[in-house]
Write a structure and sequence with these properties.
Helix content is 44%, strand content 15%. The chain is of the alpha/beta class and 259 residues long. It has one domain: NAD(P)-binding Rossmann-like Domain (Rossmann fold), CATH 3.40.50. The radius of gyration is 18 Å and the shape is globular.
């Protein structure tokens, strides 16, 4: 090893991270991994009991966290919550939803719900988070990080997922534009594109053997992602090891989009 080469660290000591949709599933897994890596994690979700249970687990593991009940589609409350934080270094825009159905059957209700949660709420959270980051006079030295939880469906199309694909493709565009604009302030912006994983959302939409067989046939590695697989990607992107990584997407899909 040359004298100039430093071993990259995946530690987040001294960082404050906010994770939306943190109550269960992927958001909870990312929050636990961040806390284990030394970050203080703001747990944001709709259900207080889930957040308190997760916060208790983190505390028992020696980590730091703060549960905050908030519906991310409530623009005013979301801005207030983020604006009131003493400081913020990392945002994980994880909250999202999906209602798989044929294109011609998409209801206005489902269309609005996915647009509001998957796109608008992500934009509002990111805007408020970046404003908070920029309040720090040492931001250009400290750096900052925004991670949008996209999907493999942000890079391909799939039957019965037109609206979901549309929202995740939009999120990829937001990622690139934010990254270019915020690079001079040393705020990195990236996305993660998971394949199907064992989460409450996936269990809700993959509810028949036929649907599961279709999914497994599309993943060359022949298995679903684990929460740990995706949380590891989120840790890498938030850590100093990814200091030169911005405006891109880390696809954790077992080869789905390689076909």
């Amino acid at each position: 090893m040359t004298s100039e080469l430093k071993i990259p660290t995946f530690r987040l000591d001294g960082k404050v991270a906010l994770v939306t949709g943190a109550g269960r599933g992927l958001g909870a897994a990312i929050a636990e991994v961040y806390a284990a890596a030394g970050a203080e994690v703001v747990l944001l979700g709709r259900t207080q009991s889930y957040l308190e249970e997760l916060s208790g687990n983190i505390t028992r593991g020696g980590g730091k966290s703060r549960p905050v009940a908030c519906d991310v589609t409530d623009d005013a409350k979301l801005r207030d919550v983020i604006g009131a934080l003493p400081s913020l270094d990392i945002l994980v825009n994880n909250a999202g939803t999906n209602f798989p159905e044929p294109f011609v059957d998409v209801s206005d209700e489902h269309l609005d719900a996915m647009l509001d949660l998957n796109i608008r709420a992500c934009f509002v959270a990111a805007q408020a988070a970046v404003r908070k980051m920029l309040e720090d006079p040492k931001r250009e030295d400290k750096g900052g990080c925004v991670i949008h939880m996209s999907s493999q469906m942000g890079h391909v199309g799939s039957p019965n997922r037109t609206v979901y694909c549309m929202t995740k493709h939009a999120l990829e565009g937001l990622t690139k534009a934010m990254a270019v604009e915020l690079a001079p302030q040393n705020i990195r912006v990236n996305s993660i594109g998971p394949t199907f994983a064992d989460t409450p959302l996936v269990r809700r939409v993959v509810d028949t053997p036929e649907k599961r067989d279709f999914i497994m046939s599309r993943i060359p590695m022949g298995k679903l992602a684990t929460l740990g697989d995706i949380a590891a990607a989120a840790l890498y992107l938030a850590s100093p090891a990814a200091a030169m990584v911005t405006g891109t997407h880390l696809i954790v899909d077992g080869g789905w989009t390689a076909q």
